């Protein structure tokens, strides 16, 4: 069916999990129906494109129930995996490079100046 004959409907995202509506939409509206995130007048939701009518109230209620179940499963999975999986924070431990007043900061800046002189000398040699 051509896209000009398709109907477009917007529904708010409230209580609807994107994965659930994506999985369920074609079951309710047929294989040509599509859904994508869409913002209408500043409110996030879903744009449904279908050759027929949009979802009924009962179908939207069913999607909301399945969405709630999905969020509960995800929360339970996060809670159970959190106790088994160690934090990665030891990998992100800060390493002191220099501290103010320790004298370490000036040697780093003088080294940088020496490197800059070397680079400029090298550039001059290449030009010649």
TrEMBL record:
Q: Where in the sequence does UniProt note compositional bias of the Basic and acidic residues kind?
A: 113-128
Q: In terms of domain of life, where is this protein from? A: Eukaryota
Annotated region Disordered: the residues are 74-128
**Name this polypeptide is given:** Uncharacterized protein
Give the originating organism. Answer: Immersiella caudata
